[in-house]
Request: fold
Amino acid sequence: MVKIREAREEELLKVGRLWGKFMAFNTEFNSSFRIKKKAPEIFSKEMIEKIKDSSCRLTVAEIDGEIVGFCYSYISHKPKHFKLEKFGFVGDLYVEEDYRRQGVGRMLVNDTLAFFSKRKVRQIELLVAIKNIDTVRFWESLGFSHLLTWMYKRT
Ligand SMILES: CC(C)(COP(=O)(O)OP(=O)(O)OC[C@H]1O[C@@H](n2cnc3c(N)ncnc32)[C@H](O)[C@@H]1OP(=O)(O)O)[C@@H](O)C(=O)NCCC(=O)NCCS
Reply:
């Protein structure tokens, strides 16, 4: 059975390692996602403060005592001239390859949407690598639409 719940401080290194896998996955699409060797440790240290912050949420999916996926999200604010003030941002979402297509990703997102809804956040945004077509399909299946294309150039 899948258990969806908030991450505990003692699990942050495990989540950091999953995050490292997420970045390795993204590196297949673009080298901008390459990370330093110590990045999972850095990620988990930064998360210690974030999980205490009421505008952030780190959710994990647990199956048979193993963490198989996570979602990190937070409430952010638009520049003052926009009518839309606060919005929810899904920073990271990852499910281990062996556990995909079993509804775990959808459950993690539903938990995140409930977190935003409780705080009256009415718009949720995220970024996805443009070549990550499967994940684009995932978000579309959950009712998300395309808003921007993030462009870059190296000099
Ligand atoms: C994206 C991701 C989190 C989805 O997790 P998941 O547990 O496999 O997703 P679910 O099983 O909940 O899928 C829900 C629906 O999304 C759609 N979907 C999911 N994966 C898909 C794929 N590979 N191709 C097409 N549609 C897909 C389907 O409609 C699916 O419903 P169905 O299985 O009943 O057809 C997972 O594939 C992943 O970790 N990918 C690598 C990291 C990544 O891209 N993260 C997101 C960054 S924004």
